[in-house]
Amino acid sequence: MPVDTRAELCTVGAAAPSAVVLLMGLNGPVAAVLTMAALCMSLLAAKAVVATARIPRVLWPAVFVLGVLAVTTSPIGSHDLWSYSFYGRMVSEYRVDPYSAVPAMFPRDAIYPLVGWRHTSSGYGPLFTLYSAAVTALAGESKLVMRLGFQLSAAAAVTWCLWVLSRARRHAELTLLALQPFIWISVVNGGHNDAIMAALLLAAVIMFDRSRSGIAAVLISLAALVKMSAIFVVAPLVVLLLVRRRWREAARMTILPLAGLFLGELIAPGSLANASSASRGVVSRASVWRLVGLVNAIPGAQITLLATAFVGALIICISWRRRNDRTAKLSAGASLSVFAMASSYTLPWYLIWGVPMLALSGDLAVLSVVVARGSLMAASYQLKGSSVEGVVVAAVTIAAPLVLLGVFLWRVWVSPTATQTATQTSTAMKR
Question: From 7, 16, 181, 374, which residue has the greatest number of CB atoms within 10 Å?
Fold first, then answer.
């Protein structure tokens, strides 16, 4: 079979399972199987695109179909967008502070039955809360408008990231990312603000690589005002600036995002504390730390402390290892991804944070590992509470995360720097 034909067929084969899950609103073992099938076909499609050096003709139509299905279907898994809506309504409708009040105070609200976190104050940044308030003010009592307000923003953010990859001619990486089931089923269908944060951070890294570190620092500050996790990208950028002896820019890159967080805390007291405490002591279903808790029965609070220290150490190590890279894409993307892959509390949509940067870096191997983690994690949540044999669940939720984390760290560590790549290319051309 010609490689062009194989690329087209694999693209259709990767998009179709996700489309079925979205169209039928599936959630269970069948959805998990379809999600894993879509992941496998997307990897084959990317491999075929490497050989053809162009994107499949059916890719953008597939993206359009998946995007339309993702925003016209009510959330299949996570219902966080209804929490977004409720926190927004607390501002626009009830005029109360969502960082101190909780949804349970308003049990007669129209969307209260849809909210999962009823006794938790908002842990999102004030900039996103402002957006949530605007959406709910526009929506009034319309649940459809509320839902679309968050799903469409996530779809727009993902589409922009894909457009950036298309402009950069990262064909294989674009194909792999565009066909990921966790992107459409978890991120876009769930209307998660993680997509907005990822788009802002991608723009920040692009500006950084164009020697516009001031603009990059401002964009990171905005992303942190959407979700505090954006601050993890600062470490690799500061290391790169210090190695290049750009002292003032390094200081600015450190100060501006921290100042943004401080400003957010002034505007919305309690936002930082809520964000840091929301998942404290909780080990999520597909976390690499779940096995530690099961075997040693260590309290969740201690696991959170150990995991936080471990993730921090990994980010520092990755930042230092990649200090000689010409661009920040790989180190920044890997630093964001390591939190989603190695923290005690992690969810499928967290994997969107770093993958656009990894895709833009051109390291298809690292990208493949991270997207596999995201889609397998999404599958593991679809298996939750099902009658599937325990060995299958254990393989997807415990074994796979540990293996993928090890492969990810190894690949990031051995991936050649831009300088080494240029040298290797030059040597090959001379030969």
Answer: 181
Q: Is residue 83 part of a domain?
A: no
Which range marks the domain in which residue 190 is found? 3-77+148-419
Q: What is the pTM assigned to this prediction?
A: 0.94
Q: Give the C-alpha separation, 337 to 373, whole Å.
A: 10
Other beta carbons less than 10 A from residue 254's beta carbon: 17
**E-strand spans in 66-221?**
none
Residue length of the chain: 431
118 lies in some domain: no
Residue pLDDT, tens place only, 96-111 = 999 999 999 999 999 9
Whole-angstrom distance, CA of residue 90 vs CA of residue 101: 8
| Cβ 182 vs Cβ 158: under 8 Å | no
Which residue in 89, 38, 57, 5 sits closest to 371, CA to CA? 38
Per the structure, how many domains does the chain have? Answer: 1
Which of 265, 83, 271 is closest to 191 using CA atoms? 83
- Rounded Cα–Cα distance for residues 390 and 49 (Å): 36
